[in-house]
Amino acid sequence: MAAALAVLAAALAAGCQRPVPRPAPPAPSAPPTPSARPSGPRAPADIVDLAAVDPGVRTDIRYATAHNFVGRPITGYAEPLCLLTRPAAEALHRVQATALAQGRSLKVYDCYRPQRAVDEFVAWAKLPGEQQMKGEFYPDEPKGRLFADGYIGAPTAHSRGSTLDLTLVPASTPDQPAYVPGQPLAACTAPTGRRFPDNSVDMGTGFDCFDPRAHTADPRITGAARDNRELLKRLMTAQGFENYPREWWHYRYVDEPYPDTYFDFPVARSSLR
Known about the structure:
This protein is α+β, with helices and mostly antiparallel strands. It has 6 helices and 7 strands, in the order αβαββαβααβαββ.
């Protein structure tokens, strides 16, 4: 009996020394879903979406697409929006009212431009092999001269939020065919019927045309095209905008609220307060 008890005690002791099974580790959680909010700082409270001030102004935000002089959507353009300081947007609303009374509407190509987009333009300018859009946007201008000749600038007033690129379109604006990447290019300096079919009135050249003929007062631009440039300039000047003489499409609101600040928040609704 004593021997049996001894054997039982030894067995129990051995059992107590067995390792206690540990619980299985929890299954790894799924990686977090990336936020839809673009990275970067937010805009000041007085930066607005132009559509909230005047939804009638047409938009064709080229740098959110591949139809621009680089040939791809540009960094920082998360959405095809026209963001402006409120004073500039309200002044543009007054321009639109006057234009409509004359059978025209405004169409914007670019408004606020983040600094990161400007940095991409600078980097692109240093790559001589990237010239896939030359045939349309700078057919007669060497790429290496674009900065020196004033067609690209860094920094740019666009990053201060009160500068924009725009044109005039008929008040009853016709549809514009979509640009298809890889389609044959047409020189921006060609006659209006042979350029990309922009629904703008004839301005003598296409938008972002890096050529002296895009200078607002170039003497080779005559007839209806000159009249249209002069009309746009009168409309814009009357409401406090100033034209950049080398680009018929480029206007800065003179009384801009941020004359010394270059912003870098993305072009996106989520950037607004």
